[in-house]
Amino acid sequence: MKAGNRTCPQTQQVLSHTVLTPNHLVSEMISQWCKSQGIELPDPVQNRMQEGVTEAERHHLFSLLDKLSAAALPQQKEAAKELRLLTKNMPSFRSLFGESEDAIPQLLTPLSGTKSRSGVLHTDLQEDVITTLLNLSIHDSNKKLVAETPKVIPLLMEALRFGTIETKSNAAAAIFTLSALDSNKSLIGKSGALNPLIDLLDEGHPLAMKDVASAIFNLCIIHENKARAVRDGAVSVILKKIMDGVLVNELLAILAMLSTHQRAVEEMGELGAVPCLIRIVRESTCERNKENCIAILHTVCLNDRTKLKALREEENAHGTISKLALDGTSRAKRKANGILDRLRKGVNITHTA
Predict the structure, then answer these.
(1) How far apart are CA 90 and CA 105, in angstroms?
(2) Contact between 198 and 234 (Cβ < 8 Å)
């Protein structure tokens, strides 16, 4: 990954992103085991020093930032390229950005004076700066600092709209990484970032799709962002992609999350989601997809009893819902049985997440 490889050596599939999330539970288990065995763990501070945080490197970082702020365009491009590589390959350089409140604003200087759509800003410079932001956002202690720097989210949104496809993908990945913090989810949602993310999802470029879907999913974990996503047209875009067989697993997970929002449920019914979801339940081999589909169908049918007709016909023809009630995940069984109960008795049931 440090060399820029994005292909899994085992499956040969291209990774959707190269963001590594620390597993704090396993780390704590290792720490406890070492303590019980009398083994001393290496000092994290010492490790960081071994990674090369020296005064010379600290000086080098801030000299590069000074070039971005004051130098001519060729020097800005050279500095931006080097910062991109340093923050990609050296975790120590990511942490150094937290030492100065001016570091991130200085990084953004080349993007702040002009707008990419004007043609003045060079796309390679934008790509390097946005990718450096992504690299910085990977560092846990930077997430709050990066997101709360005033110009960051607006510039990420501009990159989503007007960057190269790699810049768009990296901007979406940065939003996904930053949205690991709940406070950032709210901040990013209020900034209006869901709108360009949904537009980019609608564009459907394969390089950006997974990063975009991951960002939308993370943001919609909090209820206020579900309302924003629905308002910005997420339901119709997601349904169209699912019907086209694009990124079905990821987009079904988002749709299931949005199904707790009343307007989203109404739109699903209006846009013909029921036949599509029934077909996936019948044909899919993925238990998680079946679970998400039946959960959505359960909610849609609670909202509009006329949609039960299609489910009744499916059940009579294929026994699809009965099969899921027997063989599905525990949640899928619960939702399937709820639908069967309505089909048999025509009485209201209590919807639970």
Answers:
(1) 21
(2) yes
Any idea which fold 62-231 has? Leucine-rich Repeat Variant (1.25.10)
- In angstroms, what is the C-alpha Rg of the chain? 24
Distance of alpha carbon 173 from alpha carbon 16, whole angstroms? 9
Q: Which CATH superfamily is domain 233-353 in?
A: Leucine-rich Repeat Variant (1.25.10.10)
Instruction: Please state, in angstroms and as integers, the Cα–Cα distance from residue 56 to each residue in 9, 61, 94, following that order.
Output: 36, 9, 16
**Contact criterion met (CB below 8 Å) for 187 and 144:** no
Which has more pLDDT, 336 or 58?
Answer: 336
- Cα–Cα distance for residue pair 38/60, rounded to 1 Å: 40
Backbone φ, ψ for residue 299 (5° rounding): -70, -45
Please state the pTM of the whole predicted model: 0.80
Separation between Cα atoms, residue 82 and residue 89, nearest integer Å: 11
| Residue with token string 């307007």 | 263
CA atoms within 13 Å, Cβ hemisphere of 179: 29
- Rounded-to-integer distance, Cα 171 and Cα 176, Å: 9
Q: Find all residues with CB under 8 Å of 140, minimum gap 6, and list them.
A: 22
- Average pLDDT in the chain: 87
Q: Are 176 and 214 in contact (CB under 8 A)?
A: yes
Cβ atoms of residues 106 and 68 within 8 Å:
yes
**What's the average model confidence in pLDDT over 218-225?**
95
Spell out the domain ranges in the chain.
62-231, 233-353
